[in-house]
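Reminder to self: tokens first, then the designed residues, so the page reads top to bottom the way the pipeline ran.
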């Protein structure tokens, strides 16, 4: 670790998601963007130039061998997360791993075991959980403002078209709607209830690519709440969330993509027609908030919002959803 009060970052992967997250890592006052790596050296160099990284590597191993890198953000395809997270931990790097961390709970266990053995911070990157919007929604639920939660509905859908080259349609890289975006709905439902589901079911369209292109699932929780969700990478449906309780409901138009300086949700108490529009202001977007929280854990030992248990809980549900739709890795 640098003697300065900063975390020196390396980025593994130079794709679209890295292009969104990297500028926010660089913008945080406790960060320095040290290096980026890609299997394509020229792509790494172009990415480093664009985002102001000090070094570019055409090999992930070379980045992990850099003594001036304290932490890595893993932005490689889903099917490589486990391999890369374990390698980074064993190299002594703190790890922020893009969601989902892995397709199975067994692999998540291996990742966190490697991190604990190395004494490094390991966290799954569900960025939406760090934005003040979601923190305020969950606070209102915990404070009982809508009473006992009964129904949760969420969706995260878009249509990428018929693009075989897209990693979301790659079975070998563990693509599919559940892995790419359905994992958000699972994480959200678990966060709202504070429980792990004891009943999981799902139905999906699995096309010629061997992954689910759209899926609907239902999670039943021990306390009585039932969560339904839809996720799609080839169906242009909505992306929203609602929570219904015994004393009211919450409607969140943009649960996953809160980036504007001001975002809002509606809280409608029982008997109200219009409800209360709750405006949440934040000077920073979800990726910046996530980076600051991670840096605090590395520099000051601050508690992680997303823990080993949370990552394991999500992976267990993902496994059961894949079993329900007949997709096995």
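Designed residues (329 positions):
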């Amino acid at each position: 670790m640098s003697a300065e009060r900063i975390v020196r970052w390396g980025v593994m992967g130079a794709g679209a998601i890295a292009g969104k997250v990297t500028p926010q890592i660089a913008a945080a006052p406790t960060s320095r963007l040290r290096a980026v790596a890609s299997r394509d050296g020229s792509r790494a160099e172009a990415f480093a130039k664009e985002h102001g990284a000090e070094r570019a590597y055409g090999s992930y191993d070379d980045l992990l061998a850099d003594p001036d890198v304290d932490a890595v953000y893993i932005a490689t395809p889903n099917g490589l997360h486990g391999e890369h997270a374990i390698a980074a931990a064993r190299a002594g790097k703190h790890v922020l791993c893009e969601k989902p961390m892995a397709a199975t709970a067994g692999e998540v266990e291996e990742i966190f075991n490697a991190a604990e053995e190395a004494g490094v911070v390991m966290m799954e990157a569900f960025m939406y959980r760090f934005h003040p919007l979601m923190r305020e929604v969950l606070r209102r639920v915990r404070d009982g403002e809508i009473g006992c939660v009964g129904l949760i509905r969420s969706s995260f859908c878009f249509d990428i078209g018929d693009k075989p080259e897209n990693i979301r349609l790659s079975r070998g890289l563990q693509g599919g709607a559940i892995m790419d975006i359905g994992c958000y709905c699972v994480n959200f439902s678990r966060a709202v209830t504070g429980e792990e589901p004891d009943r999981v079911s799902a139905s999906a369209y699995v096309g010629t690519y061997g992954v689910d292109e759209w899926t609907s699932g239902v999670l039943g929780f021990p306390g009585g709440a039932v969560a339904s969700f839809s996720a799609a990478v080839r169906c242009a449906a909505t992306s929203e969330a609602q929570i219904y309780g015994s004393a009211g409901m919450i409607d969140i138009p943009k649960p996953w993509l809160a980036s504007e300086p001001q975002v809002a949700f509606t809280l409608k108490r029982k008997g109200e027609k219009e409800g209360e529009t709750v405006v949440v202001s934040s000077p920073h977007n979800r990726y910046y908030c996530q980076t600051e929280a991670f840096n605090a854990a590395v520099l000051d030992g601050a508690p992680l919002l997303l823990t080993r248990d949370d990552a394991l809980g999500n992976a267990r549900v993902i496994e059961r959803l894949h079993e329900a739709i007949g997709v096995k890795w």
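The domain at 129-287+314-325 is CATH 3.30.360.10 (Dihydrodipicolinate Reductase; domain 2).
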